[in-house]
Amino acid sequence: MRHELANDNDHLFKMLDAGHVDVVVVARINGLHVIKKLNIPHLKQLLGIIAVLPFVSLCTQKNKDLLPKLNAVFQQLEKENFI
Fold it and tell me: So what's the pLDDT on residue 1?
């Protein structure tokens, strides 16, 4: 498998549309946004999970009291299958 680099998601999807690459792997919401923005509705998302990556919450020392709240929100989003 050969990998191609691009400067941004727009470039990735233009390469896909032109047939220069066979697959683009991006976050679903980003891909759907680019497909709509570039008006290339014939490109469709493939269903299925390629990989599950952990999500990390980072904040400054000054805002460390927000971490429990952030973690609770992320846990709820995960429970509801949003992430």
Answer: 65
State the amino acid at position 77 in one-letter form: L
- Dist CA 18 CA 2 (whole Å): 17
More confident residue, 10 or 64: 10
Same domain, yes or no: 9 and 36: yes
Q: Would you state the structure tokens that stand for residue 23, as one six-digit string?
A: 């697959």
pLDDT of residue 45: 85
d(CA 35, CA 26): 12
pTM: 0.59
Domain encompassing residue 58: 53-83
